[in-house]
Amino acid sequence: MNILVTGAAGFIGSTLSLRLLERGDRVVGLDNLNDYYDVSLKEARLARLQAHSGFEFQKTDIADREAMARLFAKQRFDAVMHLAAQVGVRYSLENPSAYVDANLTGFGNVIEGARRSEVGHFVFASSSSVYGANAKLPFAEDDSVDHPVSLYAATKKANELMAHSYAHLYRVPCTGLRFFTVYGPWGRPDMAPFKFARGILAGESIPVFNRGEMVRDFTYVDDIVEGVIRVIDRPAQADSAWSALAPKPSSSNAPYRIYNIGNNQSVKLMRFIEVLEQCLDKKAKLDLLPLQAGDMRETVADVSRLEAEVGFKPGTSIEAGVKRFVDWYRSYYRV
User: Fold this and answer.
1) pLDDT for the residue 293
2) What is the DSSP string of 163-177?
């Protein structure tokens, strides 16, 4: 297949692109290489991909409407995996316009290009953040997501609604994937596992919000990628059992689906730090802080729909996943 991966220099995007190339797909990777975090890390991820003859890189900003229109007019894609976005809950408090530009305008440009070029399957990254103030656990795709607690989460819910309208109006097969706390090799420096590893090794205090009383469904990046690939290969179809009298949010009479991709495990933040300490062979100094605005106290994924319809259930333990992350971190940063 010829697949467009937006955000190809990112954590998940680069890992996914590599897997697609290794199985024989042609990948056009798009990224604007912005400086939200260390650009050299993004360039190193790209270098792995550029070693493959089936990879083509496009340095483009998804918010540039004309550039995106040119890309879709020039090339035909069997599928689009849309990962490019302004990420991070806390940064949305500081720079909300970045989220409007990338996650709303940019998303609109990509899905419009997919529609005009008749892409066979439009897959996009949503987030566990959409569950917001919902306290019912584990989170399931048909739960209410009407109360986001961050602008980032609100943009991701908006993406799901935009995709449904395209599936309904233009019959573009659209699948949204709600990722749960992804970690692993080549990860993002703004995320907790990366910050914790760096701080512990440097002998510095690490910030632990809500005084450690947080629970996350930590999901290893290879499990995320496996789920994504299986979804890409199964274009969304209309749900024959869907009823307008009792509408399910996760499917439709249009070709539209929503899936959680998480490890389906409730892991306390302090336990994650403990495993990280064991793998680094060094104790952490904890700076216990109050809950930060926009943060969710607990996330756990119900992945029964993913398992039933796609045939996959993530299962990498944090003990195995954190060790692989630490091995990569030590090797990449020579520490």
Assistant:
1) 84
2) HHHHHHHH---EEEE
User: Kind and range of the H or E element at 4?
Assistant: strand 2-6
Q: Is the dihedral of CA 325, 330, 333, 335 positive or negative?
A: positive
- Using CA atoms, how far residue 84 sits from 51, 146, 196, 321, 325, in Å, is 22, 23, 25, 24, 23
* Spatial CB neighbours of 247, under 8 Å, sequence gap ≥ 6: none
Alpha helix segments (H runs only) across 192-289: 192-202, 221-232, 269-280
Q: Kindly report which listed range (42-46, 92-96, 163-167) carries the lowest average pLDDT score.
A: 92-96
pLDDT for residue 331: 96
Catalytic residue list contains 152: yes
pLDDT at 93: 86
Amino acid at 14: S
Catalytic residue among 36, 91, 99, 152: 152
Tell me how far apart the alpha carbons of residues 263 and 180 are, in angstroms, rounded to a whole number: 8
Cα within 13 Å of Cα(215), Cβ side: 13
pLDDT (0 to 100) of residue 63: 97
Per DSSP bridges, beta strands 267-268 and 215-216 are antiparallel
Longest dimension (CA), the chain: 59
